[in-house]
Specification:
There is one protein chain. The chain contains 6 helices and 19 strands. By secondary structure, it is α+β, with helices and mostly antiparallel strands. The protein folds into 2 domains: 255 residues, Naphthalene 1,2-dioxygenase Alpha Subunit, Chain A, domain 1 (Alpha-Beta Complex); 107 residues, Rieske [2Fe-2S] iron-sulphur domain (Rieske Iron-sulfur Protein), CATH 2.102.10.10. The chain has an 8-stranded mixed beta sheet with strand order 1-13-19-18-17-16-15-14. A 4-stranded antiparallel beta sheet has the order 3-4-5-10, with no helix packed on it. Strands 6-7-8-9 form a 4-stranded antiparallel beta sheet, with no helix packed on it. Strand 3 and strand 4 form a beta hairpin. The radius of gyration is 22 Å and the shape is globular. The structure holds FE2/S2 (inorganic) cluster and fe (ii) ion (FE2). Fe (ii) ion (FE2) binds next to helix 3. InterPro entries: Cholesterol_7-desaturase, KshA-like_C, Rieske_2Fe-2S, Rieske_2Fe-2S_sf. It comes from Amycolatopsis speibonae. Pfam families: KshA_C (PF19298), Rieske (PF00355). Homotrimer. The two-component system 3-ketosteroid-9-alpha-monooxygenase is composed of an oxygenase component KshA and a reductase component KshB.
Length: 369
């Protein structure tokens, strides 16, 4: 089950009445195109209906009794009731709470609440959705175009996350994943000493990969993770989904971790951190203990991710950063993200040490209009 945190409540409280600093939003739009993780598959058993925010609007996510995942726009086309407040699954249909009109899995109205024939062409609007690694993802495109790429599984079903923590943060999805390319922050923020670091983000692909070998700096507060060297391999797919494999060789411990996010309004996103322990001390954890062990490691993982929050909460986006030797491949990452927007971005500029622009803007190759 997802778990909301006090950080989340703090952020929501801070959001109420706050002024948005326009310098924080130099992106062409607040919502890059792509797949966004909105909940775990295990949060949505057959028959359940949940509400989520995506790009400033509600969506309704439900699963039919046979297990079909569906995501729809929230308002009933009959008289406008919100299907996320009292809508219910009846076999393969979603039933509106107001007059009990029923909509099948194609969105078509198949029944009214009065036993009268359903009005012709009365339909819910379906939103594209999929599941990967046991996470429910929803497609967003600022122009309403259908998806042109898919998120693929990175683990077999027995290693999918069963628990996650959800944070509401004042940030932009591009900025959160830039953290992975930001080699320079691992020492100061995560108290980690990198022995190696590699990053690959082809302009032609919707994925990026990063890996590093590292050891904790002295006196870190990461419990068992402080013990020894570890290796992390991350694969991001778009700006809504990243999965990681963490190996701690001396402890015989292999973990899988996820960071999935969804922009909920122009300045806030929900970040979900999931974790699954694959092996611990060389063993597959006994079934009865495995959930407890997952939760224990999730606490440690979230503690580490949360070290970034005070910086994210208060920083601005520097479209022309002053990069120096020792920084990570920030501009490579920023060139890669262009495919998730239409139009031109300012971000492919960096300022070199002599003050020159490192690169001029380039038309987004994915702009199809
Ligand atoms: S508003 Fe949904 S059935 Fe009437
Ligand atoms: Fe970080």
């Amino acid at each position: 089950m997802s778990e909301r945190t006090s950080e989340n409540r703090d952020q929501l409280a801070a959001h109420a009445g706050q002024q948005v600093n326009p310098r924080r939003l130099p992106y062409p739009n607040a919502y890059p195109n792509g797949w966004y993780g909105v909940c775990l598959s295990s949060d949505l058993p057959p028959g359940r209906v949940v509400r989520r925010r995506l790009a400033g609007e509600d969506i309704v996510v439900y699963r039919t009794r046979s297990g079909l995942l569906r995501v729809v726009r929230p308002y009933c086309p009959h008289l406008g009731a919100h299907l996320g407040y009292g809508g219910a699954v009846d076999h393969e249909n979603l039933v509106c709470p107001f007059h009990h009109f029923a909509y099948d899995s194609t969105g078509a109205c198949v029944r009214t609440g009065y036993g009268t024939p359903p009005p012709p062409n009365l339909k819910l609007t379906l939103v594209e959705s999929c599941e990967a690694d046991g996470i429910i993802l929803v497609w967003y495109d600022v122009k309403g175009n259908p998806s042109n790429w898919k998120v693929h599984d990175t683990v077999p079903s027995h290693l999918q996350p069963r628990t996650c923590r959800t944070y509401t943060l004042r940030d932009h999805p591009q900025e959160v994943f830039e953290n992975i390319a930001d080699r320079g922050h691992f020492g100061p923020i995560h108290k980690t000493i990198l022995n190696s670091f590699s990053f690959e983000a082809p302009d032609t692909e919707t994925w990026f990969k990063a890996s590093w070998d590292a050891r904790p700096a002295a006196r870190t507060n990461l419990g068992i993770w402080s013990a020894t060297n570890f290796r992390v391999e991350v694969e991001g797919q778009g700006l809504g989904f990243a999965s990681a494999r963490v190996v701690i060789p001396k402890l015989g411990t292999h973990l899988r971790a996820w960071a999935v996010q969804v922009p909920i309004d122009p300045t806030h996103l929900e970040l979900r951190i999931g974790l699954r322990v694959e092996r611990i001390f060389g063993q597959i954890a006994p079934r009865l203990l495995s959930r407890l062990i997952d939760r224990a490691f999730l606490v440690l993982q979230c503690k580490d991710v949360a070290r970034d929050f005070p910086v994210w909460r208060n920083k601005i986006h520097q479209p022309r950063p002053r990069l120096v030797k020792g920084d990570g491949p920030i501009m490579e990452y920023r060139r890669w993200v262009r495919k998730f927007y239409y139009g031109e971005l300012e971000t492919p500029h960096a300022v070199t040490d002599n003050g020159d622009r490192a690169r001029t803007p380039v038309k987004n190759p994915s702009d199809m209009t």
